[in-house]
Amino acid sequence: PGAAPAAAEQTLLVGNLESRVREEILYELFLQAGPLTKVMICEDKEGKPQSFGYVCFKHKVSVPYAKALLDGICLYGRPITVQYWRGSSAPSYPLCLLMNLLLSNKAVDQHTQPTSSHFLLAREDGSEVCFT
């Protein structure tokens, strides 16, 4: 098991992960919200992946954006949970700012290059999010 993330305010806890989810998948998914510094799925004593991990962002502003965008997204048929890391508190960004970020996609770093042309993700409530 790895050490706890260095900066709680730049970290999200990701839970309810299906056993086939790998760090590379989480990296590609959360990269849509901004540049990342680390992605880790926690392991048990035998080295088997557990159903949770964490994602660390380069910029604090990416954290609430990622939570708003990705909480409830289904991976391998299971909705993931995205929570602020313990010891951190939800940043006090107004909801309208977060919605503008979601709609305009301006929180994604302009230097980030997507590795695939697009993909569609389904939320637990049946809505869909398309990343291009």
From TrEMBL:
Alphabetically sorted, this entry's keywords are:
Nucleus, RNA-binding
Q: Which InterPro entries match?
A: NEXT_complex_subunit, Nucleotide-bd_a/b_plait_sf, RBD_domain_sf, RRM_dom
Q: Which GO terms describe its molecular function?
A: single-stranded RNA binding
Q: Where in the cell is it found?
A: Nucleus, Nucleoplasm
Which biological process annotations from GO are given for this protein? Answer: regulation of alternative mRNA splicing, via spliceosome
* GO CC, alphabetical: nucleoplasm
The domain of life for this entry's organism is Eukaryota
Query: Matching Pfam families, A to Z?
Result: RRM_1
Instruction: Report the protein name in the record.
Output: RRM domain-containing protein
Q: Which species does the entry assign this protein to?
A: Junco hyemalis (Dark-eyed junco)
What phylogenetic lineage does the species belong to?
A: Eukaryota, Metazoa, Chordata, Craniata, Vertebrata
Q: Where in the numbering of this chain does the RRM domain appear?
A: 10-87
